[in-house]
Write a structure and sequence with these properties.
Blueprint (H helix, E strand, L loop, with lengths): L6 E3 L2 E3 L3 E3 L19 H12 L4 E8 L11 E2 L6 H13 L3 E7 L27 E2 L13 E2 L2 H20 L4 E6 L4 H6 L14 H19 L4 E6 L19 H10 L5 E5 L16 H11 L3 E3 L6 H9 L5 E4 L1 H5 L3 H8 L11 H5 L2
Parallel strand pairs: 3-13, 4-5, 4-6, 6-9, 7-8, 9-10, 10-11, 11-12, 12-13
Antiparallel strand pairs: 1-2
Length: 365
């Protein structure tokens, strides 16, 4: 198995195993008729990465409601009027030679936050923010404040909203749907006992804490039919691995992730990440998340992708060749190098195809 071998997910053929990870651009309008819709920045950004040679391009975290956004400048897809702008974006990605995918999610207690270059903290309601909601009234930290605990009716409505947004994404032309169940956002918040202290059917034991995640998966699967479904998950809260606790809890653990993966055959592909739900110091390093993908693959047989400080062609190639993951996701490197996939292919001696319009520049080297 090689990095530039094709891969097929639920009948969808993808030209290689180097995929663009979803990376928030924080560039959508925060109010008005175009709130949350892709604009010229997104068209340029994602179109250029599609031309850059990635097999699949995943559009950034897109809120299932305006209140589900991470920041006031994040994307939203939740009504028919949003579809044309997203359809243009999906079409540009496909025209560039990549498969268009989109990540949908709800930020929960980590929503209504500032864009990174303006600071770190909550945006007040008076400044365009909103009241955040979560499984329990427990804040991530002091800077993001305390959310309101969701009612049972809000939980079931949110599940339906996930399904609606996924269906709209398919109507817009996206060929794969990714659910954001990682990095401390709402789906992850339900999984972890650090953030979910509910005593009803949506909390408590493993079955209760995973109910929301599982119900979202099944509702979305029903809504999108045979379109490939990807789930991004944080394999661990990193409390067990760092021999620490948070308010007496060891948080979400790898063993629980493995159990959940086994229980959800509706998911075609798992995008394995870690952390984000607890303020804990993660021991990062090159490929630090790869062992989690490897363990999940070995113990469940699931198809996986992985990211996390994978910064060169050799490193990425080894991850796939040694079957630590089926796919390597590239994020930060691609922010400043949109053609990194074609460059790595050339470094590895793979045939590199270019759009006809660029051949003069390639042949004159």
């Amino acid at each position: 198995m090689h990095l530039f071998d094709p891969i097929t997910i639920r009948g969808l053929d993808i030209s290689n195993r180097l995929w663009l990870a979803p990376m928030c651009q924080y560039s959508a309008e925060s109010d008005g008729p175009n709130l949350g819709r892709p604009n010229e920045w997104h068209f340029q950004h994602y179109g250029s990465r599609a031309l850059g040679g990635f097999g699949l391009v995943t559009v950034e975290a897109t809120g299932i409601t305006a209140q589900g956004r991470i920041s006031p400048h994040c994307l939203v897809l939740n009504n028919d009027a949003d579809v044309p702008a997203f359809a243009k974006l999906a079409g540009l990605i496909e025209a560039g030679g990549a498969v268009p995918a989109i990540q949908i999610g709800h930020a929960g207690r980590k929503g209504s936050s500032q864009v990174p270059w303006e600071g770190r903290g909550s945006v007040s309601v008076s400044d365009g923010g909103w009241e955040t909601i979560a499984p329990s009234a427990i804040g991530y930290d002091d800077k993001l404040g305390t959310p309101r605990e969701m009612t049972a009716a809000e939980i079931t409505d949110t599940i339906s909203q996930f399904a609606r947004s996924a269906k709209l994404a398919v109507e817009a032309g996206f060929k794969a749907i990714e659910l954001h169940g990682a990095h401390g956002y709402l789906m992850h918040q339900f999984l972890s006992p650090v953030s979910n202290r509910r005593e009803d059917e949506w909390g408590g034991d493993f079955a209760g804490r995973t109910r929301f995640f599982s119900d979202v998966v099944r509702a979305v699967r029903e809504a999108i039919g045979d379109v490939p479904l990807i789930a991004r998950i944080s394999a661990t809260d990193w409390l067990e691995e760092t021999a620490s606790t948070h308010d007496g809890s060891e948080g979400w653990k790898v063993a629980e992730t493995i159990r959940l993966v086994r229980e959800l055959p509706e998911v075609d592909f798992w995008n394995v990440s870690t952390g984000g739900n607890v303020p804990v110091r993660i021991p990062t390093g090159p490929g630090y998340q790869v062992p989690f993908s490897r363990r999940i693959k070995e113990e469940t047989g699931a198809s996986t992708g992985v990211a996390g400080l994978i910064a060169n062609a050799t490193q990425a190639g080894v991850v796939v060749h040694d079957e630590h993951a089926d796919v390597v996701y590239i994020g930060r490197v691609a922010l400043h190098h949109p053609y990194i996939a074609r460059q790595w292919a050339a470094q590895m001696g793979e045939p590199v195809t270019w759009p006809n319009q660029y051949l003069r520049g390639v042949n004159e080297r």
